[in-house]
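Bench notes, afternoon.
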Amino acid sequence: MRKFSLVIADEKESNKSALKTLLKEHENFEAIALAFDWSEAISIVNTMQADVLFINHNLLPNLDALETLAQECPDYTQIVYLGESEAEAIYAFEHDFADYLLFPCDRNRFNKCIKKLSSRLNNNKQLPFENIQSLINQLNTTDQTLIVKDSGRIKLIDCNDIVWVGGAGNYVELYLVNEERPTLHRETLSAMETKLADLGFIRIHRSVIVRKKCIAELKPTDSGDYQVTLRNGHQLSLSRRYKSSMTGII
């Protein structure tokens, strides 16, 4: 069964909780991120290449923002417009959004929305990434090359350029040499730890692995943990649970 990724953009905790509860009955839809304003929603959808965006009308500053939303979200991302009045539904359909949900939303209405989304998504043309996957497979990549999808592009990252990796659920943030902003990659931290173990990476925290030779200084804290300073000046934490990874140093 194909699994679809979903972003929820809503400032109301009650709405977000209701959506997550309703989604529990649909295992092929996974909520991967929450957004708190409409521009952040667009950014997350593009970065994570999300299949679906649920967005509340209250986050949009004006009706012109609907046009921007429709234009800047990827063509393959289905948008569900959330509102409090049936009169707003017309705006959703004028911009060819997948559906409109009136809150509070009952289970039957939500299930119809999911059915519509499934139909649209299963009929979508292949994403650019999928279309060129065969080309990627032909590249002479090695175990030291990481293939990353990034906003509709394919990036080939040399693992020797990775300084440290932070966990973010089913994603990791790759912090690279000479790059200020991390690169988001869909893989678990545990999988990355296994992949990078032979390249000198160690786990120092439940959500952090780091290249050992990039560590410049360790400083004990009052809690029994350590403050880790990297050669680039960035600071991380070494928790007591992972002190054994520094055997021979501390």
